[in-house]
Design a protein that fits this description.
The protein is an alpha/beta fold. It has eight helices and four strands. Helix 3 crosses helix 4, helix 5 runs parallel beside helix 6 and helix 7 crosses helix 8. Strands 2-3-1-4 form a four-stranded parallel β-sheet, sandwiched between helices. It is globular, with a radius of gyration of 16 Å. The longest helix has 19 residues. Bound molecules: adenosine monophosphate. The site of adenosine monophosphate has 17 residues, from helix 3 and helix 4.
């Protein structure tokens, strides 16, 4: 409620949630999207749906996801560009898991500048690595996500986060 009264003030809410795998982006996104009535755009969820449906995009993404690496920027940017054109994004949206590289952030800047809009809020969730590993291994017991059950893949995702994603905050 505080967030709403101090920041919202009628602005179109375009929000980015930053944080390492397991930091709680998805959990907090659920609260935030209900509170502000805006759609959650989780690139991870979109990719998992594409993999499940066996689309060309899903086939291209699967090996990157299984190894804990990142899906190529061009694929992600194209997917997000299409998604934010949809009608439900007119009053704002919440990115969860995007942008994940500086190139994605720069591409997003360009897309939003073309639309003469901007990001209103960036929220960064900060959690220790020990706690993150515990959470991911626990999530792996119920999520059905193969990338949450293998500790090597989890570690790879942290390395990718440190090298590729944490610079996005700057
Ligand atoms: P997540 O559900 O956000 O943890 O994403 C699961 C996996 O999907 C990641 O480990 C990546 O392989 C891929 N992925 C999700 N979002 C992105 C993104 N913005 N850029 C590149 N790869 C992504």
């Amino acid at each position: 409620q505080n967030l709403k009264s101090t920041i919202y003030r009628g602005a179109i809410l375009r929000i980015i949630l930053l944080g390492a795998p397991g930091a709680g982006k998805g959990t907090q996104a659920t609260f935030i999207k209900q509170h502000f009535n805006i759609p959650q755009i989780s690139t991870g969820d979109m990719l998992r749906a594409a993999v499940k449906a066996g689309t060309p995009l899903g086939l291209e993404a699967k090996s990157f996801m299984d190894s804990g690496g990142l899906v190529p920027d061009a694929v992600i940017i194209g997917m997000v560009n299409e998604r934010i054109k949809e009608a439900d994004c007119a009053n704002g949206f919440l990115f969860d898991g995007f942008p994940r590289t500086v190139a994605q952030a720069q591409a997003l800047d360009k897309l939003l500048t073309l639309k003469k809009t901007d990001i209103a809020i960036v929220l960064a969730l900060d959690v220790t690595e020990k706690e993150l590993i515990n959470r991911l291994l626990n999530r792996g017991k119920t999520s059905g996500r193969s990338d949450d059950t293998n500790e090597d893949v989890i570690k790879k995702r942290f390395t990718v986060y440190t090298n590729e994603t944490s610079p996005v905050a700057d």
